[in-house]
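Fold this sequence, please.
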Amino acid sequence: MIPTPGIWGAIIGKNMDFSLHLQAALGGADIIRVGFEDSNICNNQQAKSNMELVETIRKELEILGFEIADVDEAKKILDIE
C-alpha cells in the first residue's frame, strides 16, 4: 500500500519481453526502468543498445495510452529540480 501522493517504480531484470514492465505501468507505477544493467533482451532478441530498449518500451507504453514525461517533467515529478 503506497500512501497518496506516492511514487513507485519497477526494475525488472532478465526480461524476455516487456510484459512485466507494462503490467507495472498498468498497476500504477510512475517509473519504469530499462537498461542493459537489468537485461539486454528486447522482445525475445538481444538488443543492440540501451536506446533500443528505451525506444521499444516507450512505444509499448504509448500504445497503451501512457504519456512519457520529458526530462523537466520527470525532475518535477521526482522533486529533484
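The chain has a mean pLDDT of 88. The chain has three helices and four strands.
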